[in-house]
């Protein structure tokens, strides 16, 4: 199986009130979590990224992470204090340009000795676009068109340099250098030509990650990704997603093992099953504070609900389905009216308060139990073809993976289902996916 670590970003996962909760900005926090993941022989360390601070009723929500340093810069620094751990960053394809992104990722691949990965994402809203000259120009329907061409253009740039083994003798080397970096791309989204400044990295191409769950997103992953992040942390949902995505690979000439499916998951350990369950309940209540519960509900109701008791019943007012009060939160898109109707039915059926409903609706805890039972649950998920592994999202920064690495990983190694040590230097080696597509011939 494959394991990865996620450093929480803009989220409602972090338990800020825990005395062990540290900085999400200081470099020492990144170092601690990355080194913990590497000690556990994880495949990679992942940083998400938001391009604008999210707002609620025109104000920054103070339980969000604010002030997060830029991801590729952080990973470049981490490449100097780790030796084998893959380093993955979200980089937006809507508000960036292929040349610059390809250059930064190739640089990270060189600095890290072949450990770079790129989570290709798109942006849907003009709110984020206000931070950029183009604003919100891109229609939502065109997001994947741009992302697909963006990725293909970046690959052309990486392939514009010959692999190192093709320039072994001096004569061939001089010839290759004469044409190195030459590129020309003519497409509907990009029309660029010139010379690419960074030689081909140790991996050829950085590992490509994708996180879309729509039909279009799944197709994009099947065609172009090496890893897909999944939100399906339940066994039956995971099996269905796994089967669907893997079945799409053959049309692109790819084998099932060339795309790794990794759901985002959490864990809670206890000395007994009851102890773990009690801890899990405490963590959920700490994540969904009374204020957080109201803020979350306001996103779907589209109106100010500050006058309601979070421990009381759901608001009796109808939702405002207009522009809403939240900006920058993808979960508040879609049919909010349908969500409200579903929640009202659930609250009525189970007698849930506002806070209890939000805890139920946003529950992310996946593996709960003793170290041995959690190791068994993780293994069952993978052996049942519901995932190829997991991206663990801790609720504490920076020590949230310490217990997992110390108590659960050794049991997975004991079972023989997770590596005892790294077997190669690159992230592609860790994932077992081999090299990228063959590069173009150098002129």
TrEMBL record:
<keyword id="KW-0285">Flavoprotein</keyword>
<dbReference type="GO" id="GO:0004497">
    <property type="term" value="F:monooxygenase activity"/>
</dbReference>
<protein>
    <submittedName>
        <fullName>NtaA/DmoA family FMN-dependent monooxygenase</fullName>
        <ecNumber>1.14.-.-</ecNumber>
    </submittedName>
</protein>
<feature type="domain" description="Luciferase-like">
    <location>
        <begin position="20"/>
        <end position="384"/>
    </location>
</feature>
<keyword id="KW-0560">Oxidoreductase</keyword>
<dbReference type="InterPro" id="IPR016215">
    <property type="entry name" value="NTA_MOA"/>
</dbReference>
<keyword id="KW-0503">Monooxygenase</keyword>
<dbReference type="InterPro" id="IPR051260">
    <property type="entry name" value="Diverse_substr_monoxygenases"/>
</dbReference>
<dbReference type="InterPro" id="IPR036661">
    <property type="entry name" value="Luciferase-like_sf"/>
</dbReference>
<keyword id="KW-0288">FMN</keyword>
<dbReference type="Pfam" id="PF00296">
    <property type="entry name" value="Bac_luciferase"/>
</dbReference>
<comment type="similarity">
    <text>Belongs to the NtaA/SnaA/DszA monooxygenase family.</text>
</comment>
<dbReference type="InterPro" id="IPR011251">
    <property type="entry name" value="Luciferase-like_dom"/>
</dbReference>
């Amino acid at each position: 199986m494959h394991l990865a670590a996620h450093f929480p970003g803009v989220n409602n996962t972090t338990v800020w009130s825990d005395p062990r909760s540290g900085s999400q900005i200081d470099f020492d926090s990144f170092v601690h979590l990355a080194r913990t993941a590497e000690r556990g022989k994880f495949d990679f360390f992942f940083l998400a990224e938001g391009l604008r601070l999210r707002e609620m009723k025109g104000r920054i929500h103070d339980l969000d992470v604010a002030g997060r340093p830029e991801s590729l810069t952080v990973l470049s620094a981490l490449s100097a204090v780790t030796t084998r751990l893959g380093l993955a960053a979200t980089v937006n394809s809507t508000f960036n340009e292929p040349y610059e992104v390809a250059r930064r990722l190739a640089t990270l691949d060189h600095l890290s000795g072949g450990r770079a990965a790129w989570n290709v994402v798109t942006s849907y809203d003009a709110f984020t676009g206000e931070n950029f000259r183009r604003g919100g120009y891109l229609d939502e329907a065109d997001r994947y068109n741009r992302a697909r061409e963006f990725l293909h253009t970046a690959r052309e740039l990486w392939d514009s340099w010959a692999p190192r083994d093709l320039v072994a003798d001096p004569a061939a080397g001089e010839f290759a250098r004469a044409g190195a970096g030459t590129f020309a791309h003519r497409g509907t989204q990009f029309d660029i030509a010139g010379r690419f400044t960074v030689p081909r990295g140790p991996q050829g191409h950085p590992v490509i990650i994708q996180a879309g769950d729509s039909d279009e997103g799944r197709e994009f992953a099947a065609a172009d990704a090496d890893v897909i992040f999944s939100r399906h942390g339940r066994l039956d949902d995971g099996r269905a997603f796994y089967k669907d995505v893997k079945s799409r690979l053959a049309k692109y000439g790819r084998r099932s093992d060339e795309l790794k499916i990794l759901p985002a998951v959490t864990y809670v350990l206890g000395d007994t099953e009851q102890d773990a369950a009690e801890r899990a309940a405490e963590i959920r209540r700490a994540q969904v504070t009374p204020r957080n519960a109201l803020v979350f509900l306001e996103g779907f109701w589209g109106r100010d609900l500050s006058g309601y008791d979070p421990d009381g019943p759901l608001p009796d007012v109808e939702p405002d389905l207009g522009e809403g009060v939240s900006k920058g939160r993808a979960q508040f898109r879609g049919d909010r009216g349908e969500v409200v109707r579903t929640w009202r039915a659930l609250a009525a059926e189970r007698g849930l308060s506002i806070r209890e409903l939000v805890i139920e609706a946003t529950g992310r805890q996946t593996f709960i139990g003793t170290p041995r039972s959690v190791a068994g649950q993780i293994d069952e998920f993978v052996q049942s073809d519901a995932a190829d592994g997991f991206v663990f999202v801790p609720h504490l920064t920076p020590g949230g993976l310490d217990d997992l690495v110390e108590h659960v990983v050794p049991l997975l190694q004991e079972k023989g289902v997770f590596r005892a040590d790294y077997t190669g230097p690159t992230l592609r080696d860790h994932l077992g996916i081999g090299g990228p597509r063959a590069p173009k011939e150098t002129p």
